[in-house]
Amino acid sequence: MNTVIDAHNISKTFNPETIPIYAVRDVHLHLERGEFTALVGPSGSGKTTLLNLLGGLDKPDKGNILINGVDITSLRPNALIDFRLKNIGFVFQSFNLIPVFTARENVELIMQLQHRSKSEIDERVKILFQEIGLEEKMNTRPAQLSGGQQQRVAVARALASKPQFILADEPTANLDSKSAIKLLDIMAKLNKEENITFIFSTHDPRVIERARRVITLVDGQVHSDTRAIDTSGEHFIPIDKE
């Protein structure tokens, strides 16, 4: 496998001008292409902050993050936006779909920003809605969709740009068991068939049991890092730290 994300000694603090609170502290992390990884830990452990740093939605106070060899922490804002657009897909806990757009329009938007042709967009949208099993809901607005359906549309939107990896922040938190399992099935299938790297922040045992690597954060630091030794995800071995 090839390293897709390489984070060196990254830290992020809040209230740096008074009493600094470390959300992430001195984290070293290497993620390989095709991994299906869960970031776990108690509330306040730094999971979402670390995910935002890896995705370039926030910037570390120190350290650097390389994605495919590109140091995203040194990119200017416009270059960073362009880099995210081409390389990273995001799935948010609150879906973040545009309410006045149809499901189809929400998925199309990112490809329009990439200036793709109408024929290419139409073909990609057709494939994605087949993948998520919502072909009949393409012209429906988010308010008329269930939570599980909205999250599946959010996954399709994340996949629209053909990203190399997807960051998902508590993607099953607002879903019932049936919807959560369906969503995980879709993401596991895409991970296996298209070698898309998935990184989740989660409390959900249903996500954790599917993960093939589990990174546990405590007080903003990596407490443990284990990788599954079989395809069930039930047996894990520790990963050697630097």
What topology does this entry show?
Elements lengths: L2 E12 L6 E12 L3 E5 L6 H8 L7 E6 L2 E2 L5 H11 E4 L11 H11 L4 H15 L14 H13 L5 E5 L7 H18 L2 E5 L3 H6 L2 E6 L2 E8 L7 E3 L4
Parallel strand pairs: 3-8, 3-9, 6-7, 7-8
Antiparallel strand pairs: 1-2, 1-4, 4-5, 9-10, 10-11
Helix pairs in contact: 3-4, 3-5, 4-5, 5-6
Please tally the helical runs, counting DSSP H or I stretches of 4 or more residues. Answer: 7
Terminal CA distance reads 18 Å
The CATH superfamily is known as P-loop containing nucleotide triphosphate hydrolases
Helical proportion, percent range: 25-40%
Write out the strand line-up for the largest beta sheet, numbering strands in chain order.
6-7-8-3-9-10-11
Describe the main β-sheet briefly. 7 strands, mixed
Instruction: Enumerate the spans where pLDDT stays under 50 for 5 or more consecutive residues.
Output: none
What is the β-strand count? 11
Q: What is the radius of gyration computed over CA atoms, rounded to a whole number of angstroms?
A: 18 Å
The domain count comes to: 1
- Structural class computed from helices and strand pairing: alpha/beta
User: What is the annotated CATH architecture?
Assistant: 3-Layer(aba) Sandwich
CATH top level assignment: Alpha Beta
Overall pLDDT: 90
CATH topology tier name: Rossmann fold
What is the 3D form?
Answer: globular
Order of helices and strands: EEEHEEHEHHHEHEHEEE
Share of residues in strands: 25-35%
Organism: Algoriphagus limi
Keywords: ATP-binding, Nucleotide-binding, Transport
Pfam families: ABC_tran
GO molecular function: ATP binding
